[in-house]
Amino acid sequence: MLKNEFKREFCNCFSCASFHLKDRNVKHIRVSDAQKVYDVYDFKEEIGHGTFGIVVLAVEKSNTKQWAVKIVHKNIAGATKLIEVNREIQILKVVDHQNIIYLSKVYESPKKLYMVLELCKAELYKIYKHSKPLSEKVTRRVIYQLADAVSYLHKNDVVHRDIKMENILIADNPKNHNDEYFIKLTDFGLSIVKEGVGIQSLMKDYCGTVLYMPPEILQMKTYSELCDVWSIGIIMYMMLYGSNPFYNQNEEILMHNICFEEPKYITEGVSEQAIQLLKCILEKDPVQRMTASQIKEHPWISEKEGQSLSRGQNIVEMMKQFRFEMNSLTDRKSRGMSIICDGLELPSLSNTKLVKAGIKRSTTKVHKDK
């Protein structure tokens, strides 16, 4: 029963979706005996755990390379969770970006799934909790990479839908060993590959982590990939100010704040450029919200991250040019998409509390951080 339900639902999720990305030919090895996996890897200590499985440090016996192996117990996970895990596997098999977690192999036994992932050294959320608020330099470095990864996903019709600080890991940068904030975006269990174009590509599933969810999802409207951009803005605000801009222990008040209240932008210790960028990202109207690609080109990021800028162009000129481009884009979006407004501690095994949504909604469950 469970197996048939999983197959049916999983096929429904991917039968119509077409990846623009080339398959990386990641091996998916089915074994009758789990011992065959242990013959390849020497499993060390547990480095993460969740309701449905664990993440273990493993050493590949043939070359001593270290990996993080996510082990999912099929029977405990159930059909819904297995759909998420396999969705994550399918997406990680095709994505290829330096700031997205790398999937090396998948092993599958009758009882368990083994995802062999690159090993990272830290979690951004733990660094944030210990050192908040973080400097503009560190924030800029993280947000640029995150926007680059998300821009890559969106250009290939992949929407993450659960971007949050807990899903960002810190890894070694093979090109720069002095880079202390080389990030990896993880946990693609709620991700989706968009179908169709224009209005046909909009989504309506209620999912994500409440603290990072945009107004359009909380209000049960159709939404686009710009839901990911909102989440980037929440992370940026948290890093700069040391708190979530809408946080409240009461879930109903939290969701009200996200939908109807504006963040407080304190100028002390945060530059005008950073605040200007935040306002463009945390725009409640998704039609007016900045895209991931535009985040990379904003002067607060581009002037420091080595992006191409015209010679002799000063900050004032850059800001004027940027505002002109944003206004032009807004006009185009308003003309072409106004109907949308009217009608409209480790990857996925983190022990995140599941709660129902608050503002009259279906039984769909979402994550809410403690």
Explain what the structure shows.
The chain is an alpha+beta fold. The protein folds into two domains: 16-118, Phosphorylase Kinase, domain 1 (2-Layer Sandwich); 122-367, Transferase(Phosphotransferase), domain 1, CATH 1.10.510. It is 39% helix and 17% strand. It is built from twelve helices and 13 strands. The strands form four sheets. It has a six-stranded mixed β-sheet. A hairpin with a 5-residue loop joins strand 3 (53-60) and strand 4 (66-73). Helix 1 packs parallel to helix 3 (74-92) and helix 5 (136-155) packs antiparallel against helix 7 (226-241). It is globular.
Assign the structural class, choosing from mainly alpha, mainly beta, alpha/beta, alpha+beta, or little secondary structure: alpha+beta
Distance between the termini: 34 Å
Shape descriptor reads: globular
What low-confidence regions span 5 or more consecutive residues with pLDDT below 50?
1-18, 307-318, 332-365
Overall residue-averaged pLDDT value: 84
What is the CATH superfamily classification of the largest domain?
A: Transferase(Phosphotransferase) domain 1
E-strand count: 13
- The proportion of residues forming helix, as a percent range, comes to 25-40%
At CATH's second level, what is the architecture of the largest domain?
Orthogonal Bundle
Strand sequence of the main sheet, in spatial order?
A: 1-5-6-4-3-2
What is the name of the CATH topology of the largest domain?
Answer: Transferase(Phosphotransferase), domain 1
